[in-house]
Fold:
Amino acid sequence: MATAAVVATALPTAPATAQPNAADALKKYNELSEQASKLNQDHLKAQEDLKAKQGELDKAKGDLANAQKAEESLRGQVDLLTEATNSGANFSQISALLVSDSQQDFLNRMSAINILAADNADALQKLTDAVNAADAATKSANEATETSKKLLAEMDQKKADLDKQLAEAQTQYRSLSNTVKSQLAQTGDMSNINVPAGTAGRALQFALDQRGKPYVYGSNGPNSWDCSSLIQAAYRSAGVSIGRTSYAQAVAGRPVGRGEVKAGDIIVYYSSQSHVAMAVDGIRAVHASTEGVPVKIADIDSIGPISGIRRIEG
Structure:
């Protein structure tokens, strides 16, 4: 994501003969890019939420199917017990006494009656539990379905908003002069940079290796990136799994202060937490900023207002 501060560090002061609207066009482009970046993160989060809810829906459907099978099985057992009772199998104590040939025969018959009664009660209770479980699973599946539908509608709206914002930003970008476009497209420092050993160093090396590649909203690499996909892929290359969105990355690891920043730390920008970069050291960071600007190194504090810093390792 580009901001006025980012571009200001990349561009020379405009000469007095510059077109009157050049600065305004650049400012507008930066504003639209920032808004589009936030919408992009919102859209990505909506996709993750929908995926999670779909998992809940699938589980609820599975629970419902299992409960229905249990209900059918137990209902059959209860039906058999009921049929036996109707056929006279469930004798009373008096009838057992009358038909018994001996005291032992009576005790045997009484034991059978008690077992039959216990089985019947147990089967009825299990059937009741299974029916209740099926009802609960049905309700859960229905709620998950409705939630998924709402999330899908929200995601569609966010996508529509993003597409509109991107179109506006692209229009504004096209209005910039070729000189400004050329300066924005510069790759900056491409020199070899020593990275520390360990997870953070491996992640940083991956991010540095992406310098010069284009920014594309919603891209997951390997030939183009958005801000959060670059950070996620960098740590994935080092064997660490972190969230896809800048929002998820804003709570990954542990927080550190600005004066503690070291290589590999995730720098989170804006109160909206809609942009992320990776610290190269205590002064510089590498990030994917916005369309028309490649992955490059910039001064940490020039990228935008810092809302938080997270350390994944150490």
